[in-house]
Write a structure and sequence with these properties.
The complex is a heterodimer of chains A (124) and B (563). Chain A has 124 residues and is an alpha/beta fold. Chain A contains five helices and five strands; from the N terminus they run βαβαβαβαβα. In chain A, helix 4 links the parallel strand 4 and strand 5. The radius of gyration of chain A is 13 Å and the shape is globular. Chain B has four domains: 179 residues, no CATH class; 103 residues, PAS domain (Beta-Lactamase, 2-Layer Sandwich), CATH 3.30.450.20; 71 residues; 149 residues, Heat Shock Protein 90, CATH 3.30.565. The longest helix of chain B is centred in the middle third of the chain and has 36 residues. The radius of gyration of chain B is 42 Å and the shape is elongated. The two termini of chain B are 59 Å apart. Classes of the chains: A alpha/beta (124), B alpha+beta (563). At the A-B interface, helix 1 of A face helix 11 and helix 12 of B.
Chain lengths: 124, 563
């Protein structure tokens, strides 16, 4: 079965772009619009990788990451942080919680993100 | 000059005006001298009258003599003693001395009788005279009461005392009449009243002003012991007025600073006698920590001797909060701006990739325009974000061991597409022997990116761009030379201004932000470096960024810059 990626992003157009791009490359993609939905979906479906936005309503990215790292299966799950918040403090926190990469959305092309995903979990 | 009366201790702090302090001293000695004389009379007179003991009389005389001597010694030179009074006082004093020496003692009453009321009208303000008159009347009454039981012994003295009372009364009446009914007197009275009023008003004005001040103000002695503190000092530190007065300034609220800070502080204010300014970290009584901008001014007298220190502290916690709120706003706004830009970028990218079906050459061309426009917008938002962090002073400089050669390689690699596209000849001479230095790699990258991309941007095709990085004992120098359009003379002074773009390149290169050089200059200045350039129109430009050979200095801040 194809590798499963969970996209947690509150901005609908961005979420859709990521989903389409990953689906086109053959990944199985599911979506969540905030951290609460995201963590529930993650616990439910155990994805192979999570693309995670930081600034989100209800539960934000770092909150979700902390919850995820408490789960035994989620301890070492690859997570790529996608955000516009270029804040040293937030980066450090994400590193402490073992997020693998910290990307700034506007600066990255979809191609580069796809490349990063392939680096982490390989081809679909 | 106003005398600032200390509320708690009752000490007077007079501003250093020539003669002012001395007059005050004389007045005070006179006051105490007379008080001493009066006390001696009050205590000794009844004893003397009852027992008629010579020793007591002599002691009393000597005390009175001493106190009057003091009065004359200091009082003679004060301007308040008009000339007839001086002579009269001298004559009385002289005859008293002769009396004591020759033993032809006749009682002190006679001298007291004249000198006391006279002095009162020469030295004292009306309110002081009133107090003294009242105490003197009490004394007269007590002796009069005594005379009822011992009429024979005291009759002589009582006569003198009543004489004093009579002179006092006459003088008061004369004074009153003079003040009321002669023009000169009225003027003098008005003048005196006005002066008193002005003096009090001045004092009140100063006190009101300092107490209403937003800043914490203290006056200390040369050892830093607080003599005066305004209301804001209590409001800001949380310590009551009484808790502050008499303690060493800052002992209760300043958090320990590095030793060097104190050394500089004391050297500046005490040795150099100059104003010290700095930032302190303080703690209120309730434990809350706050930052304060402090200035300490040494106050010198006319001979240049240190008299006081004036310390003014401004609690900057509100400003810090506002700065933080502003910077949060900028962060949030940039996030909001960048999200739709990402959407534009990504969907255009997908269209260009043919993800939504094949596109025509013309469609591709137009989509490329959209894509580049959006990329420019991203660059602009990043630059604006950096500028706002620079302007707010919230950007951090975090030096870490860095090889500048590696950063230069990254910067050149990033520019490769543009260099290739314009067929620019890129010459890079980076000294290999530059050691690992404490530099902020992100900031160095921003400097190199901006200088190099400018050089490539503003050089026509097939031009040459040269990057030189070298280090000597003093400086680490980054030099970027191009064979480009150059900068017109009239634009030289405006090159580092925010949003400025020179006319000769505005048309040729539309996608500049006008922020790059401002950012580079700010980074360099904040990290101890500087930037300069030489340029000739149509020939090219050399930008020279210079950093200390020892690298960058740490600057704490909340945000890094985005390259």
């Amino acid at each position: 079965m194809a590798k499963h990626i969970l996209v947690v992003e509150d901005d609908q157009p961005l979420r859709k772009a990521l989903r389409d791009m990953l689906a086109k490359r053959g990944y199985r993609v599911s979506e969540a619009q905030d951290g609460e939905v995201g963590i529930a979906a993650a616990i439910d479906s155990h994805p192979d990788l999570i693309l995670l936005d930081l600034l989100m309503p209800r539960l934000d990215g770092l909150g979700m990451l902390q919850r995820l790292r408490q789960e035994p299966w989620g301890k070492d799950l690859p997570v790529i942080i996608l955000t516009n918040v270029n804040d040293v403090g937030k980066v450090q926190e994400a590193v402490v919680n073992k997020a693998f990469d910290f990307l700034v959305k506007a600066d990255w092309t979809l191609e580069q993100i796809a490349e990063k995903v392939r680096e982490k979990i390989g081809n679909p | 000059m106003a005398r600032l009366k200390n509320q708690a201790g009752g000490k007077s702090v007079s501003a250093p005006q020539p003669g002012d302090a001395l007059t005050l001293l004389r007045r005070r000695i006179f006051l105490y001298g007379c008080a001493l004389g009066l006390i001696a009379m009050v205590v000794a007179a009844p004893v003397q009258l009852l027992h008629g003991a010579n020793t007591v009389l002599i002691i009393q005389d000597l005390v009175v003599l001493g106190s009057f001597a003091l009065v004359l010694l200091f009082g003679y030179r004060t301007q308040n003693l008009t000339w007839p009074m001086r002579w009269i006082a001298l004559i009385i004093f002289g005859s008293f001395v002769i009396n004591v020496i020759t033993g032809t003692y006749g009682g002190v009453g006679i001298y007291w009788t004249f000198l006391f009321p006279m002095a009162m009208f020469t030295f004292f303000t009306s309110r002081e005279a009133l107090v003294w008159s009242a105490s003197f009347i009490l004394f007269i009454l007590s002796v009069t009461a005594l005379s009822i039981s011992e009429p024979f012994l005291v009759s002589y003295n009582v006569t003198q005392l009543w004489t004093t009372g009579a002179i006092l009364t006459i003088l008061t009446i004369i004074n009153f009449l003079r003040q009321r009914f002669t023009e000169q007197g009225r003027d003098a009275l008005l003048k005196a009243q006005r002066e008193t009023f002005e003096q009090q008003e001045e004092l009140r004005k100063f006190k009101l002003a300092t107490d209403s001040a937003y800043d914490h103000i203290v006056i200390t002695d040369p050892d830093g012991i607080v003599l005066y503190a305004n209301a804001a000092a209590s409001r800001i530190t949380g310590f009551s007025h009484n808790e502050i007065i008499g303690t060493k300034a800052g002992k209760k609220w300043s958090l320990p600073m590095p030793r060097k800070f104190y050394e500089t502080l004391w050297r500046t204010i005490k040795t150099k006698k100059q104003i010290f300014t700095g930032e302190l970290k303080n703690r209120r009584k309730n434990g809350e920590v706050y930052y304060a901008l402090v200035s300490i001014s040494p106050i010198l007298d006319e001979h240049g001797n240190l008299r006081f220190f004036l310390g003014i502290e401004r609690d900057t916690s509100r400003e810090k909060q506002i700065d933080l709120a502003k910077s949060e706003f900028v962060s949030l706004a940039s996030h909001q701006l960048r999200t739709p830009l990402s959407a534009i970028n990504w969907y255009t990218e997908m269209l260009l990739n043919g993800d939504a079906g094949k596109i025509t050459a013309e469609q591709k061309e137009y989509l490329n325009e959209v894509y580049h426009g959006s990329q420019r917008m991203v660059a602009l938002v990043n630059a604006l974000l950096n500028v706002s962090r620079i302007d707010l002073g919230t950007f951090a400089i975090e030096p870490q061991p860095t090889r500048i050669q590696e950063i230069a390689t990254i910067a050149l690699k990033e520019l490769e597409p543009q260099i290739r596209q314009k067929r620019i000849r890129m010459i890079s001479t980076v000294a290999k022997d530059i050691p690992t230095l404490p530099l902020d790699p992100k900031l160095i990258l921003i400097i190199l990116q901006n200088l190099l991309s400018n050089a490539v941007k503003y050089t026509p095709s097939k031009g040459t761009v040269t990057l030189r990085i070298s280090r000597d004992a003093k400086c680490l120098t980054i030099e970027v030379q191009d064979t480009g359009y150059g900068i017109a003379k009239q634009d030289h002074s405006r090159m580092f201004q925010k949003l400025f773009r020179a006319d000769n390149v505005r048309e040729r290169v539309p996608d500049g932000t006008g922020l790059g050089l401002y950012i580079v200059k700010s980074i360099l200045e904040q990290s101890g470096g500087k930037i300069s350039f030489t340029s000739e129109l149509g020939k090219g430009t050399i930008f020279r960024a210079i950093l200390p050979a020892t690298g960058m200095k740490l600057k704490s801040g909340t945000k890094g810059l985005t390259s």
